[in-house]
Amino acid sequence: MSDSARRAPPVRAGQAPGLARRFLAPPGLIWGDFTASDGAILRWAHLPARSPRAECVLVTGFMEFIEKQFETMRDLAARGLSIWCFDWRGQGRSTRPRLWPNRPRARRFERDRDDLVEFARAKLTGVPSRFLIAHSMGGATALLCLHANPGLFAGAILSSPMLGLSGGGVPPALLRCVTLPLRLAGLGTCLIPGARRWPIVRTPSAETSRLSSDPERCAVHRAWFIADPELRIDGPTFGWVDAALAMLTRIGRPDFLAAIETPILLGSAEREMLVSADAQRHAARRLPDCTLATMAGSKHELFLERDAIRDDWLDRIDRFISERCGARS
Questions:
Q1: In CATH, what number is assigned to the domain containing residue 143?
Q2: Global pTM?
Q3: Closest CA to 289 of 322, 264, 269
Q4: How confident is the model at residue 166 (pLDDT cuts 50, 70, 90)?
Q5: What residue numbers bound the domain in which 308 lies?
């Protein structure tokens, strides 16, 4: 496999979103492209820490991209964590389909797992300790990775992991009675009811956002979509939902969860509206070494919440990593 790295280019006039400086690329950020074993290109960014006590790979959720993580990368690096982050296939500036590049396809989660493993083994040296930080959809892929690769990471931090979908009380098996036939009929790229194509017309507020109750951070995602058309992606499709339901059935089995020995910190949002908090609690009870942190007052995006919640979450991560790698915060 080949790999390349480059310094982050300066933001050109007219390209920077109307966001505070902390949401833009931090000084010292390195960009690069990673070529997976099948030739797919995964864009990555790396923010080194001075005298790092741990190396971390940060993987994102559905519709997300590296730019959304700039503030988080900056704050984690300030806590002595060297951070690597990459865009999943079909998202950000990684390889996308030629036809309808903004439209989500049925994800091949095992392939995502393999991309994560390949990337971590190539980039994270293991000295100091290696950790996995995963948000939402990335949390589900993280469990696939930890199950198949014990010992790859010293620990994992799962932020609002997608361990079940918020289906309005409809059982997943019943949902698949709809999604699977439509996918097999060639309608997998059709948006599910209520999903939207870009553009999202209205900027969310702290009151209306399902992601964050912080008035600035809840607008970060849309601001980058406006600034960079290549980052944009539509809402969920029948194919994406069907593939997710099939994968979630697998990782939700007690025997699957019981086989994951890696220490895990699982952050669950008290005001969760996108994924299943019940599924997160179910997983926390069955994982052999899992600390469940229910974040009071938080919506889905723990890393984009208001300061009181976010600082508490970062402190929990700090303590978890210190306990697992024997380093002082």
A1: 3.40.50.1820
A2: 0.94
A3: 264
A4: confident
A5: 24-325
